[in-house]
Structures are given as structure tokens and as C-alpha cells.
Design goal:
22 helices, Serine Threonine Protein Phosphatase 5, Tetratricopeptide repeat
């Protein structure tokens, strides 16, 4: 959580509004016997208020910079100068929460709420701190109070769903999540959590649409579970091509589970898993269907032939940054034209678009080689034998080729064995 950034105009207004009072002049004649020297009086109420507001603004600025410790010091000073300044105490609680001082945050916020029970934002921050402390019953009580005062606060409804789930109240969690979505449908995290709880209660027909909705919004975990739903037919008709599409998107966003799931499908397609021939053919077809379906994601592209690739079309449009990940997805789905184009791009790059020896392309060849894909193993052997973007490693190149039963691999192995320095790196 972060406090609202203070505007430059507000900071300027506070800075120029600083008062500098002077001590009142003595009416006693100067130098009278026994007359003490004039003392500087304490700041007046108006001066203390101005200084408190200055420290409040400084604290907010520090929070905006991410400096919670400095912010906390400023908020404490503001509270000292003006004890009834609720914003200072509320923001102090927030700063302490950001610093990880949960006990201090709870103490400050509860003290404020004793004075100002209607401070809804402070109560919500208190609930959040209690959640971080895993004090679920107390957090639930505070959240329910927030929602009595502000029934449409989506963040409080979402938090209440999390708390109810932690307390084992699954139906209550579902209700809270659905209320949040009814008020603000564009909430992928809420939909994902709702789908998880529905799945736990064996309501797959209700869970899968929520996973898919969150997946469409780019939620990688939801994309992974959407893939599971389609490959297993949980609440939807089985569709392995759609599962591949969702897992590919999730893998692009860093989902290791999705990458592993795709790897298992590829092992089946390569005949390296214990599946029936019919299952293998079905998965091979699913990968073909996935590659065809990719064109639908880019309606602005023109396909030039059956062997054209989406990544190649993107490259022709000068969209190299988009082309590489798409080409990798196509190659991992057994597109030979995509694999060949990736090899060419690794060796030579694309002017003003892609530099040679792209690390993403190298990672693809390593993955495909580890899975036993013949052409990828030969390419990776060339890369190591010639030291293209990697330290030269002839032994590793020979090892890759020796375990690749293909005539091209054996021919390259002979060339390396006879003349290690004369390895043809590219076509």
C-alpha cells in the first residue's frame, strides 16, 4: 500500500504559508531593576497547526518516494504538534505498516479510531495490518465495520474474502468475492481468488469462467489454471489446443508450471511419454491447431503461405520485439519454419530490430535440445562449437551430437572431430 502522492501545488502552498512570529515587545522600560530578560514564548496554536501541516506534507512526500522511515518521523512530529490531526496519525500507521512495524501500526491506528471511529481509511489500514499479523478474527471485525460504513468499497470486500477463506468460511469468501466483482467487474485478482475457492468446493463449472476472465486480463496463474480446465475438460469441453494457448501465454509471463505442462505435452508428441498412438496424434494435432489459431490474435497480419509464421509476419512489419517471443512459441509448438528463422536470427540478427546472439533464442534452443528435438540439438552444437554468444565448448558440442541419432548430426560430428576450428555456424 502507498499513500496518495502530495501534489506539487499543495507542497508549494504549504511551504509559502509558513508563519514566523516574533516575541511581543515588553511594555516595561528597558533596564529596570529586577526585570528579567524577555523569554521567547511557546508557539501559538496557529503556528503549531501550520508546522504540523508542514510535517504532514513532508511525510506524504517521503511516502511517495518510498522512504517510510523518514515519513514516520515527519508524521510523529505532526502528531506531536497537533494531537488532534487525524491525517497525521492515520499516515503514521500506514508508514509503520510499510516499515514492517505491524504492532506499532496497530497501536497507532487503534488510538486514532478511539478518537475518530468514523475514520474509514484508517480502519481499513488497521484491518490490513491485522491480516499481515494473521489475526484473522480481528481483521474480519474491522473489515465488516468498514463495509457497514462503505458497502461498495471493493478493496475491503476483496480483503474480507481473503480473511473468510483463511478462517475456513469458503461460502463467505465466495460471497465477498462476488460482491466485489458485482461492483467492479474488471478485477482479475478477485476473479482468480473466487475461481480458486470455487474449485476447492468442486464447482468447476463456475470456476472455469472466472479463471478464463482473469486469464484474459493477463493473470498468469489464472492462465495456467485455464489451461488445466481445457486439457481436462473441467467445466468446459476438452480442448487441448486452447490449453496450449493459455499455457503458452502463462509461460511467456514466467509461469514455470505452465512451461512444465507444455513440456509434458511435447514429450508425448515426440513419442517419449507412455501414451497411446491415438493420444500422441491428438496432441500433435493440437499443436498444429494452436499454431493456426495464433493468426487470429493478429488479424492485421497477412499470411503469405502455409509455411508462413506469425512471428515472421511480425518481423516483416518491423515488429522484432514482438516477433521473437511469438516465433519461440511457434517453434516450441513444432513449427519448423519458426525454428529455422530463429536459428537465422540468432546467427545474424535483424537490422534495427534484433541483435545477433539473442539470449531468448538461445534459451529456446537449450530447452528444445534438452527435450531431444533433433534440429535444436544440432543448432546448439554449432553454437557451442563456434562459441557464438557463449564460451566456446567443443566437448559439449560433441556430446550433443553423439547422442543425436541423425545423419546431419553425425556429419557435423565428423567435421568437428577432424577440424574443430572449421565449424559452419550458419547456412
Amino acid at each position: 500500500m502507498r499513500s496518495t502522492t502530495v501534489s506539487v501545488a499543495l507542497l508549494a502552498a504549504i511551504g509559502t504559508g509558513c508563519a514566523t512570529g516574533t516575541a511581543p515587545r515588553s511594555t516595561t522600560p528597558t533596564g529596570a531593576v529586577g526585570d528579567p530578560a524577555p523569554a521567547t514564548p511557546p508557539a501559538s496554536g496557529s503556528q503549531r497547526e501550520v508546522r504540523a501541516r508542514e510535517h504532514l506534507a513532508l511525510g506524504r512526500a517521503a511516502m511517495a518516494r518510498g522512504d517510510a522511515a523518514t515519513a514516520a518521523a515527519s508524521f510523529r512530529e505532526a502528531s506531536r504538534l497537533q494531537p488532534d490531526l487525524a491525517d497525521a496519525r492515520e499516515n503514521l500507521g500506514l508508514a509503520l505498516y510499510e516499515m514492517g512495524d505491524l504492532d506499532g501500526a496497530v497501536e497507532e491506528l487503534r488510538a486514532l479510531l478511539r478518537q475518530r471511529p468514523d475514520a474509514v481509511r484508517a480502519r481499513y489500514v488497521l484491518a490490513t495490518a491485522l491480516m499481515a499479523k494473521q489475526d484473522w478474527p480481528a481483521a474480519r471485525s474491522e473489515l465488516e465495520d468498514v463495509l457497514r460504513r462503505q458497502p461498495d468499497q471493493v478493496s475491503a470486500l476483496y480483503s474480507l474474502g481473503l480473511v473468510r477463506y483463511a478462517l475456513g468460511d469458503l461460502n463467505g469468501a465466495i460471497e465477498a468475492y462476488r460482491q466485489a466483482i458485482s461492483r467492479s467487474p474488471d478485477q482479475p485478482d478477485v476473479r482468480y481468488n473466487l475461481a480458486l475457492v470455487l474449485k476447492l468446493t468442486h464447482r468447476d463449472a463456475e470456476a472455469t469462467p472466472e479463471f478464463v476472465a482473469a486469464a484474459r486480463a493477463g493473470h498468469p496463474r489464472a492462465q495456467f489454471f485455464a489451461g488445466i480446465a481445457y486439457v481436462r475438460g473441467l467445466g468446459v469441453e476438452p480442448d487441448t489446443a486452447r490449453a496450449i494457448a493459455w499455457w503458452s501465454r502463462a509461460a511467456d509471463r514466467g509461469s514455470l508450471e505452465a512451461a512444465a505442462a507444455l513440456g509434458e505435452l511435447r514429450q508425448t508428441a515426440l513419442g517419449k511419454a507412455r501414451r497411446t498412438p491415438a493420444e500422441r496424434r491428438a496432441i500433435e494435432q493440437a499443436f498444429r491447431d494452436y499454431r493456426t489459431g495464433l493468426w487470429n490474435d493478429y488479424p492485421e497480419l497477412t499470411r503469405t503461405g502455409d509455411d508462413d509464421t506469425v512471428g515472421g509476419a511480425l518481423l516483416r512489419q518491423g515488429r522484432g520485439a514482438d516477433a521473437v517471443p511469438v516465433l519461440i512459441s511457434e517453434a516450441l509448438a513444432f513449427s519448423e519454419p519458426a525454428r529455422a528463422l530463429l536459428e537465422e536470427l540468432y546467427y545474424h540478427g535483424a537490422p534495427a530490430q534484433i541483435a545477433p546472439y539473442d539470449a531468448r533464442i538461445l534459451a529456446y534452443f537449450r530447452t528444445a535440445a534438452d527435450e531431444g528435438q533433433v534440429r535444436a540439438r544440432i543448432t546448439l552444437a554449432k553454437i557451442y562449437a563456434a562459441g557464438l554468444g557463449v564460451p566456446k565448448d567443443t566437448a559439449r558440442a560433441i556430446s550433443l551430437l553423439k547422442s543425436t541419432p541423425h545423419e546431419d548430426a553425425q556429419r557435423l560430428l565428423q567435421e568437428i572431430s577432424v577440424a574443430p576450428e572449421a565449424v559452419p555456424p550458419s547456412r
